[in-house]
Amino acid sequence: MEKISVFLDDYRKAPEGYVLAETIDECIELLQNFDIEHLSLDHDLSNRTKNGFMLVQKMVEEKLFAKRITIHSANSVGGKAMYNCLKKAQRNFIMPNSIILSLRPLPLNFFPSKVLEHYLEIR
Protein backbone atom coordinates (compact mmCIF):
# COMPACT_ATOMS: atom_id res chain seq x y z
CA MET A 1 0.00 0.00 0.00
CA GLU A 2 1.34 3.43 -0.95
CA LYS A 3 2.51 5.69 1.90
CA ILE A 4 1.33 9.30 1.95
CA SER A 5 0.93 12.18 4.40
CA VAL A 6 -2.43 13.96 4.59
CA PHE A 7 -3.34 17.50 5.62
CA LEU A 8 -7.07 18.04 6.37
CA ASP A 9 -7.96 21.72 5.98
CA ASP A 10 -10.35 23.76 3.88
CA TYR A 11 -8.53 27.08 4.38
CA ARG A 12 -4.78 26.53 4.66
CA LYS A 13 -2.62 25.06 1.89
CA ALA A 14 -0.97 21.73 2.61
CA PRO A 15 2.78 21.70 3.32
CA GLU A 16 4.94 20.45 0.48
CA GLY A 17 4.72 16.70 0.10
CA TYR A 18 1.28 16.39 1.71
CA VAL A 19 -2.01 15.42 0.10
CA LEU A 20 -4.70 18.01 0.84
CA ALA A 21 -8.11 16.77 1.99
CA GLU A 22 -10.73 19.51 2.32
CA THR A 23 -13.54 17.39 3.80
CA ILE A 24 -13.75 14.58 6.31
CA ASP A 25 -15.21 12.34 3.60
CA GLU A 26 -12.06 12.86 1.47
CA CYS A 27 -9.91 12.19 4.53
CA ILE A 28 -11.76 8.98 5.40
CA GLU A 29 -11.35 7.74 1.84
CA LEU A 30 -7.59 8.37 2.05
CA LEU A 31 -7.38 6.61 5.43
CA GLN A 32 -9.19 3.60 3.98
CA ASN A 33 -7.05 3.35 0.84
CA PHE A 34 -3.52 4.44 1.79
CA ASP A 35 -0.89 3.83 4.45
CA ILE A 36 -0.84 7.26 6.14
CA GLU A 37 2.53 8.27 7.53
CA HIS A 38 1.37 11.60 8.99
CA LEU A 39 -2.18 12.92 9.35
CA SER A 40 -2.60 16.59 10.26
CA LEU A 41 -6.13 17.64 11.19
CA ASP A 42 -8.16 20.84 11.43
CA HIS A 43 -11.39 21.11 13.40
CA ASP A 44 -13.36 23.89 11.69
CA LEU A 45 -14.33 23.08 8.12
CA SER A 46 -16.65 24.92 5.76
CA ASN A 47 -19.15 22.05 5.98
CA ARG A 48 -20.67 22.99 9.35
CA THR A 49 -22.29 19.58 9.78
CA LYS A 50 -18.99 17.65 9.52
CA ASN A 51 -15.96 18.83 11.50
CA GLY A 52 -12.64 17.43 12.64
CA PHE A 53 -14.07 16.09 15.90
CA MET A 54 -16.57 14.01 13.96
CA LEU A 55 -13.67 12.66 11.90
CA VAL A 56 -11.66 11.51 14.92
CA GLN A 57 -14.77 9.83 16.34
CA LYS A 58 -15.16 7.93 13.06
CA MET A 59 -11.44 7.12 13.02
CA VAL A 60 -11.72 5.57 16.50
CA GLU A 61 -14.94 3.74 15.62
CA GLU A 62 -13.46 2.25 12.43
CA LYS A 63 -9.87 2.00 13.75
CA LEU A 64 -8.49 4.15 10.92
CA PHE A 65 -5.20 5.65 12.08
CA ALA A 66 -1.91 7.05 10.82
CA LYS A 67 1.57 6.45 12.20
CA ARG A 68 1.63 10.05 13.41
CA ILE A 69 -1.32 12.40 14.03
CA THR A 70 -1.14 16.15 14.55
CA ILE A 71 -4.09 18.33 15.51
CA HIS A 72 -3.31 21.71 13.92
CA SER A 73 -6.64 23.48 14.50
CA ALA A 74 -6.54 27.11 15.66
CA ASN A 75 -9.85 26.38 17.43
CA SER A 76 -8.48 25.65 20.90
CA VAL A 77 -11.66 24.03 22.23
CA GLY A 78 -12.25 21.88 19.14
CA GLY A 79 -8.59 20.95 18.79
CA LYS A 80 -8.31 19.88 22.43
CA ALA A 81 -11.51 17.81 22.12
CA MET A 82 -10.02 16.00 19.09
CA TYR A 83 -6.73 15.43 20.91
CA ASN A 84 -8.49 14.16 24.05
CA CYS A 85 -10.68 11.80 22.02
CA LEU A 86 -7.60 10.22 20.44
CA LYS A 87 -5.71 10.07 23.76
CA LYS A 88 -8.70 8.31 25.32
CA ALA A 89 -8.65 5.81 22.44
CA GLN A 90 -4.98 5.14 23.25
CA ARG A 91 -5.70 4.72 26.97
CA ASN A 92 -8.52 2.28 26.11
CA PHE A 93 -6.21 0.30 23.74
CA ILE A 94 -8.33 1.14 20.68
CA MET A 95 -5.57 3.22 19.09
CA PRO A 96 -2.03 1.81 19.37
CA ASN A 97 0.28 3.54 21.83
CA SER A 98 2.96 3.56 19.13
CA ILE A 99 1.06 6.32 17.29
CA ILE A 100 2.60 9.71 18.00
CA LEU A 101 -0.09 12.27 18.80
CA SER A 102 0.61 16.03 18.82
CA LEU A 103 -1.47 19.14 19.48
CA ARG A 104 0.18 21.98 17.51
CA PRO A 105 -2.22 24.81 16.60
CA LEU A 106 -1.35 26.66 13.38
CA PRO A 107 -2.08 30.29 12.55
CA LEU A 108 -4.54 30.68 9.69
CA ASN A 109 -2.34 32.62 7.26
CA PHE A 110 1.19 31.20 7.44
CA PHE A 111 3.41 28.41 8.74
CA PRO A 112 5.98 29.68 11.25
CA SER A 113 9.38 28.17 10.44
CA LYS A 114 9.56 26.22 13.72
CA VAL A 115 6.17 24.65 13.02
CA LEU A 116 7.05 23.91 9.42
CA GLU A 117 10.03 21.89 10.65
CA HIS A 118 7.55 19.52 12.32
CA TYR A 119 6.05 18.77 8.91
CA LEU A 120 9.31 18.54 7.01
CA GLU A 121 10.93 16.10 9.46
CA ILE A 122 8.03 13.69 9.12
CA ARG A 123 8.08 13.24 5.32
What's the helical proportion of residues?
Answer: 25-40%
- Rg, rounded, reads 13 Å
Largest sheet, in brief, is:
5 strands, parallel
* Percentage of residues in DSSP E strands: 15-25%
Question: What is the correct CATH architecture?
Answer: 3-Layer(aba) Sandwich
- One letter per element, helices H and strands E, the order comes to EEHEHEHEH
> What count of structural domains?
1
Pfam families: cREC_REC
Domain Cyclic-phosphate processing Receiver: 4-87
InterPro entries: cREC_REC
Protein name: Cyclic-phosphate processing Receiver domain-containing protein
What's a quick, concise take on this entry?
By secondary structure, the chain is of the alpha/beta class.
Question: How would you characterize this protein structure?
Answer:
It is built from four helices and five strands. The protein has one domain (3-120): Rossmann fold (3-Layer(aba) Sandwich). Helix 1 packs parallel to helix 2 (52-62) and helix 2 packs parallel to helix 3. The protein has helices at residues 24-33, 52-62, 76-91, 113-120; strands at 3-8, 19-21, 35-41, 68-71, 100-103. The radius of gyration is 13 Å and the shape is globular. The chain is an alpha/beta fold. Strands 2-1-3-4-5 form a five-stranded parallel beta sheet, covered by helices on one side. This is Cyclic-phosphate processing Receiver domain-containing protein.
